[in-house]
Amino acid sequence: MSPTSRPLRKLGFLTIGLFDETDPRRGHESTLEIIELGERLGFDSAWVRHRHLQYGISSPVAVLSAASQRTSRIELGTAVIPLGWENPLRLAEDLATVDLLSGGRLNPGVSVGPPMHFDQIKDALYPDTADAEDFGYARVERLLDFVRGKPATDFSGVEGFEVFSDRVQPHSPGLGRRMWYGGGSLRSARWAGEHGMNLLTSSVVKAEDPDGPQGFAEIQLSHIRAFRAVHPDGEAARVSQGLVVIPTDSATPQQRARYEEYAALRLPRTTSPQGPARLLFAPDLVGTSDEIAERLHAHAAFREVDEVAFALPFSFEHEDYVQILTDMATKLGPALGRTRAA
């Protein structure tokens, strides 16, 4: 381990949960089986992506509710729920319910911004209020307030035979400290820190400052440091890194060839910022666990974190994920200095 690296404390993974339109149950079952495998292998956390009007998990809270009943230890996260599709009060109720059912293992990650392809779906999503909806940080603040137990109404008490609460019920006391923000810009990192959230970083950042750091790792490092500089917990504030990592220790030659081809097809987008938003992507890491560990220890942002949620590639087969997760847990984790969870 590099002497400048933080010891790796939590090893997690992230999956998109793809499914075939003709057999969606099988895809969802595959995701649940992968989460169960993650617990058996000793992973600390399993995270699911969120996709609307696509062939991936559209209801991660429901999927994680099912996962909570098939597991007993592994933490369960969302990376991330786009709040533009959600009512914060209703989402707070769902999150608290699943957190209680899981025994306090839920780690909800969220993001803001207009829903993707908003002009095409706004009439279905917000037929009467599309022009009035606020898709900024205020939406997260509402969710945080409800999750953390602030009043949602000025009415409470007994009415007839019914009892009413002025705050969201059920209330899960520890959930407020396990709320994550998925940020890829300096502004979002600072905002998350100022509001006492945890920070989810991924394989995408905004190269927004022409006078600032230019490489992916250096940009991501600047976000992490800006986040911790304003967070109430300072250097102890939680940050999780979500690079795409594909260890090949036990892969077949055919699997290795497919993994390398996948990474090669995605490599051109990592050489320069993409599009008007100047998005910069990290290269996928493919190789033996020792090779990947060496590259991570040289990664400036990785050296600043002690939690990871390595992203599984979108389009691989169930058997590929089993091999990748097994190598992550048994080979890559130890190579990064992490001790398997009990």
From TrEMBL:
Highest classification ranks of the organism: Bacteria, Bacillati, Actinomycetota, Actinomycetes, Kitasatosporales
Species whose genome carries this gene: Streptomyces viridochromogenes (strain DSM 40736 / JCM 4977 / BCRC 1201 / Tue 494)
Protein name listed in UniProt: Monooxygenase
Signal sequence interval, chain numbering: none
Record-linked InterPro entries: Bact_Lucif_Oxidored (IPR050766), Luciferase-like_dom (IPR011251), Luciferase-like_sf (IPR036661)
Domain of life: Bacteria
Alphabetically ordered keywords of this record: Monooxygenase, Oxidoreductase
UniProt GO cellular component terms: cytosol
Luciferase-like domain boundaries: 29-257
GO molecular function: monooxygenase activity; oxidoreductase activity, acting on paired donors, with incorporation or reduction of molecular oxygen
